[in-house]
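Translate structure to sequence.
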């Protein structure tokens, strides 16, 4: 657990970067710090591993005031990942990942074996270990950065805009990877971003900061989208927040109808997986997005709205055709849910 108790950081030039921060990061969760540029996210993060010390207040990691722990010792238990990975350009990928184990006194063979294990864990082929960072794509470098931060198996991981230098598609892949890793590793992760979509996608709890280093709201993503604390948060989470909030709405109430037997018809393959639609004039067209039973309702609405027939195609866990939904039915289910 990480705890900020009335933490303020004022720099020598008088800038208040963080102002009276009170916040608890639960162990084993991903907590995201989000907010506009200059609102104190990075400063808050760096007070955890003592790259910056607070002007007043206390930062505790597992109940211990970090000011009482020697910085090198403290950092052995805290992985740190930064934008553009910050890899050593003249060391191979494998040696980059082995850096911390080597510094901790492991022998070279054991450190490299551990590094190879970690490359696999973050989804990189073993032969990439021999390459130099410049021979990898941005997304691959970020994975190496994550592997390096995990090398000493620290209970805490600090991530400062780790995915902001890669394009949106790669970025989503990295976010998925982080969620998969976290399900396996159960670290206490603090993740800084200025991107609200990234924040609500990966955060179990999200801290929204405003200018002057003030915490505006600290809540699970669904609550942030449905109950922003004030106008600042409402504006920051954006004008589509009502729609995006559907990502967190359970879908139990959506009625799934059997696929139509006349007019527009779903085309399926031999395993009964949807492949598109046959229009009433017999022409086959590609389908819209598929909605998997049990997923949040946002996917059901998207399936209906993106379908050429106006019917969203619903599949089961194996991807087999389970039925269809209309946008109207989805909206009705949402409204029933709101009435409670
Ligand atoms: N060493 C420093 N000396 C003086 N002011 C600083 C120093 N470091 C940061 N600041 C100021 O403190 C405030 C908070 O900076 P911080 O880097 O924590 O913001 P941030 O929310 O992480 O921003 P960004 O999203 O742009 O990285 C900013 O106004 C910044 O200019």
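Result:
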């Amino acid at each position: 657990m990480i705890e900020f108790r009335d933490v303020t950081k004022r720099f020598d030039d008088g800038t208040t970067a963080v102002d009276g921060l009170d916040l608890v990061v639960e162990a084993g969760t991903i907590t995201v710090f989000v907010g506009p540029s200059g609102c104190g996210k990075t400063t808050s993060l760096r007070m955890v591993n003592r790259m910056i010390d607070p002007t007043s207040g206390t930062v505790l990691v597992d109940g211990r005031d970090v000011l009482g722990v020697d910085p090198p010792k403290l950092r052995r238990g805290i992985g740190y990942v930064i934008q553009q990975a910050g890899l050593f350009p003249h060391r191979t990928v494998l040696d980059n990942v082995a850096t911390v184990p080597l510094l901790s006194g492991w022998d070279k063979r054991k450190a490299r074996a551990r590094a190879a294990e970690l490359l696999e864990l973050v989804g990189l082929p073993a032969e990439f270990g021999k390459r130099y960072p410049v021979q990898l794509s941005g997304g691959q470098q970020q994975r190496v950065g994550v592997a390096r931060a995990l090398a000493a198996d620290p209970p805490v991981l600090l991530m400062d805009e780790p995915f902001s230098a890669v394009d949106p598609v790669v970025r989503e892949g990295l976010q998925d990877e982080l969620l998969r890793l976290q399900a396996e590793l159960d670290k206490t992760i603090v993740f800084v971003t200025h991107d609200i979509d990234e924040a609500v996608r990966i955060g179990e709890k999200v801290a929204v900061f405003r200018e002057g280093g003030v915490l505006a709201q600290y809540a699970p993503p669904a609550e942030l989208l449905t109950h922003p604390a004030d106008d600042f948060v409402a504006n920051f989470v954006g004008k589509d927040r009502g729609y995006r909030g559907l990502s967190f709405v359970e879908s139990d109430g959506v009625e799934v109808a059997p696929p139509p037997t006349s007019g527009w018809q779903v085309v399926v393959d031999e395993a009964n997986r949807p492949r598109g639609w046959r229009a009433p004039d017999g022409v086959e067209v590609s389908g819209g997005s598929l909605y998997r039973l049990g997923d949040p309702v946002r996917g059901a609405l998207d399936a209906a709205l993106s379908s050429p027939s106006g019917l969203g195609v619903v599949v089961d866990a194996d991807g087999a055709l389970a039925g269809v939904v209309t946008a109207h039915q989805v909206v009705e289910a949402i409204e029933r849910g709101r009435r409670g």
